[in-house]
């Protein structure tokens, strides 16, 4: 166990102790919105901010999700520089499920996978699409990703996130596993469980998620916290619930850069939490 960002206070105050990267558990994934913060976000991450940010925090971060507007509207070379900066700190950049969704709507999924790979992304999120995409087509897209050495993960959302007007009902264990399994069989390295799914489960959340975790493995699950655009304090409520229900070692995602120093103190009561 070591901390890359050691300091002279280590003999005075309790210090962060994390396993070396790459680690299978206790991962923290952040969201990078670039300069596309309005109207939902109050922070930005340009190249100058990023270098400074990583100098202080890189040992705490395992993956970084780039928001889709940033990827498709920013200059390619600028995105490549950001990706390189993250990779130099052993942080894996990946494309949001919205990237896939937007590519699907424009009928360019395979081209979008190739474009993301050429930018330097190492992974991307796929998502549940109800009956809109056939098993055959999904197989083609997963094979395309594999041929391009683009890793992928599966994110399970309530169906309303794919198709507006879908009923607000929680998924059963069987529905989550049946939709995730083809992705896992084809090499998905993670299953992301969306915070809205957790909320819809209400008092059944622990029982349902426990069964999913038992089948897939805690090391292949990442639990998503709520974005600040849906409530500034809800991410902390989600994280607290995940730690209480699934343990301090669970992997969490959708953490904003300004929240990063609060994650480990919520896992370890010996650290300062404000």
Number of spatially distinct domains: 1
Helix content: 40-55%
Tell me the major beta sheet.
8 strands, parallel, barrel
Shape: globular
Kindly provide the radius of gyration, computed on alpha-carbon positions and rounded to a whole number of angstroms: 18 Å
Q: Which stretches are poorly predicted, pLDDT < 50 over at least 5 residues?
A: none
The largest beta-sheet arranges its strands as 1-2-3-4-5-6-7-8
Average pLDDT metric: 92
CATH superfamily: Aldolase class I
CATH-derived topology: TIM Barrel
Q: What is the H/E string?
A: EHEHHEHHEHEHEHHEHEH
- What's the N-to-C terminus distance? 25 Å
Q: What structural class results from the helix and strand content?
A: alpha/beta
Got a strand count? 8
CATH class: Alpha Beta
What would you say the CATH architecture is?
Answer: Alpha-Beta Barrel
Tally of contiguous helical segments? 11
Percentage of residues in DSSP E strands? 5-15%
Description:
The chain is α/β, with parallel strands linked by helices. The chain has one domain (19-265): TIM Barrel (Alpha-Beta Barrel). It is built from eleven helices and eight strands. It has helices spanning 47-57, 68-73, 76-88, 97-105, 109-119, 135-147, 173-185, 195-201, 205-216, 234-246, 260-267, and strands at 28-32, 63-66, 92-95, 123-127, 151-156, 191-193, 221-224, 251-255. Helix 7 links the parallel strand 5 and strand 6 (191-193). The longest helix is centred in the first third of the chain and has 13 residues, at 76-88. The radius of gyration is 18 Å and the shape is globular.
């Amino acid at each position: 166990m070591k901390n890359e960002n050691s300091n002279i206070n280590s003999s005075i105050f309790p210090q962060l102790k994390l396993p070396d990267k790459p680690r299978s558990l206790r991962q923290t994934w952040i969201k990078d919105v670039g300069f596309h913060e309005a109207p939902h976000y109050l922070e930005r991450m340009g190249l100058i901010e990023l270098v400074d940010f990583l100098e202080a925090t890189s040992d705490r971060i395992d993956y970084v999700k780039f928001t889709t507007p940033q990827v498709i509207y920013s200059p390619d070379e600028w995105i490549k520089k950001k990706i390189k900066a993250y990779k130099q700190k052993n942080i894996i950049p990946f494309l949001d499920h919205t990237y896939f969704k937007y590519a699907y709507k424009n009928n360019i999924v395979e081209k979008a996978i190739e474009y993301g790979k050429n930018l330097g992304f190492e992974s991307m999120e796929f998502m549940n699409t109800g009956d809109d995409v056939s098993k055959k087509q999904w197989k083609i897209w997963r094979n395309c990703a594999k041929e391009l050495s683009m890793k992928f993960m599966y994110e399970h959302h309530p169906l309303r996130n794919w198709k507006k007007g879908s009923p607000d009902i929680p998924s059963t264990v069987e529905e989550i596993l049946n939709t995730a399994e083809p992705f896992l069989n084809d090499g998905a390295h993670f299953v992301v469980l969306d915070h809205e799914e957790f909320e819809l489960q209400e008092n059944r959340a622990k029982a349902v998620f426990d069964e999913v975790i038992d089948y897939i493995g805690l090391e292949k699950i990442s639990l998503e916290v709520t974005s600040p655009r849906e409530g500034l304090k809800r991410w902390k409520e989600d994280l607290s619930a995940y730690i209480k229900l699934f343990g301090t070692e669970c992997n969490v995602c959708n953490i904003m850069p300004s929240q990063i120093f609060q994650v480990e103190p919520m896992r370890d009561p010996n650290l300062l939490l404000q």
